[in-house]
Design goal:
Shape: elongated
Strand order of the largest sheet: 2-1-3-4-5
Distance between the termini: 55 Å
Strand content: 25-35%
Number of domains: 2
Helix content: 25-40%
CATH topology of the largest domain: Rossmann fold
CATH superfamily of the largest domain: Response regulator
Largest sheet: 5 strands, parallel
Order of helices and strands: EHEHEHEHEHEEEEEHEEEEEH
Length: 239
Amino acid sequence: MTCIIVDDEPLARQGMEMNIANLPSLQLMGSFGDALSASDFLHKHQVDLMFLDINMPKMSGIEFLRSSAELPMTILTTAYSEYALEGFELDVLDYLVKPFSAERFLKACIRAKEYYEVKNKPTDNTDTSQPDNYFFVKCNGKIEKIVYDELLYVEAMLNYVVLHMGDRKMMVYLTIKGIEDQLPRSLFLKIHKSTIINTTKVKSIEGNEIDLGKAKVTISQNLHDVVMKEILKDKMIKR
């Protein structure tokens, strides 16, 4: 993966450059002291991953993330842990609190690599077989098989997601965006920044509340019209 560093502290950039140099899976394309310089570089070059500081002059890391929907996968690096929730609401892959260990840095990079591989997995358009009805996740040291039909909804919790499957739950180290990209859009729909539902499980809709039988979830006000249109499609019988 190609990557860049955006941090106003020269020593922090040097430390990140050393960490990146030790990982064969990463290729450093540039190191920048402010978000504006990084933005100019990103307009001219394809970059897969960005290590982004939060507190910087001119434009903060959070402001930079909000400035464009076309930024690379992002891992936040900061000395301030209080921005973690805000960062994950902006779909960052991970949040490294300075000073972080080489082990913690490696863990974040492995997660980015796994997400990158899923996102860029080639598709075989000549395959006429039926699509898989399941996927696998890593949970508590085990590889768990999740059948689509058993999954009611997915709920984001900081840098984890909770998979709700009727009478059981499973907490997985993934972002809501990471798992959204793995779920078939024909079955699953994001109804809130922190919630994805299995549309085949919808029993009823009342106001902003969806009844999934064994659970009730809330539709985001901003997404309400889009969600209703997608769930109902042409299946609504009118008088």
